[in-house]
Each structure stands twice: as C-alpha cells, then as structure tokens.
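Record passed on here:
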Amino acid sequence: MNKAITTEQCAEMVCDLDWQKISLALPPNLSTRAKNSSQKYRRFVEAVVWVACNRAFWSELPRAYGPWRSIYVRYMRWFKAGIWTKVDRTLDANSACGTALRSLLDDQLHAQQRRRLRVERKTPPSAVHPREDVPLL
C-alpha cells in the first residue's frame, strides 16, 4: 500500500510556477481574490491535490488544511463552474500537481456520468412525453 503524502510534500507539489498558472486560469473575480489572499487559495488547491494524490476521502483531509466539508463544497462549486477544467489545461502535463488534479477530475467526471446513467435508467419511459421528450412530472 502506498504511503500517504504529507502536507509538506503536497505544498512542494504545488510549486510557485504551478500556482502562478493556476491563479491566471481563474475567472477574474476569483483571480483577484486569489492574488489578495494567495495563502488561503493556495492552501485550498494544496488540499485538493492532497486528496488527489492520496486517493483519499474528503473526510480524511488533514485538519491543517481546514474543515474538509468547506474544501469539498468549494471544490464542487469550482468543478461545476468548469474552473478545474481551465486550471487543468494550463498546468504542465508532466507536473506532479497537474497529474494529481487530472486524476481527481477524471474520477469526478466518471462518477458524474455513472450518476447520470443511473438516473436515466430509473426514469420510466411513461414519464416522458412521447413527442417532445418533456417530463410529465
């Protein structure tokens, strides 16, 4: 079994160059916030990378990063807004940070597709209008 990476190792994974690329990939409102309180936002990205590298549950996140639920909720907001996809495109494919984030995003997309398929299978054919694909519910 792989040994979990420490918070210090994770901080090293998000090097200054990666952090600069990440902050530039953020939408204008977040980019400004990230520049004004870079420590806070960088710590958030490091927390996400820690989860990705350790393939851990969010609840296993070390307390040093802050409350895991807050970090998870922000991660999901960024995911749904497409921010992580933009961040992923800006990072070097061979960087440790980029590789870790990519694996987490791939897992998230796969889980989202599985949920969508499960919901589609549960929707009975009679619940959809025959002509317009409009739910009757």
About this structure: The CA atoms of residues 30 and 36 lie 10 Å apart. The radius of gyration is 18 Å. Residues 96-122 form the longest helix (27 residues). DSSP finds seven helices and no strands in the chain.
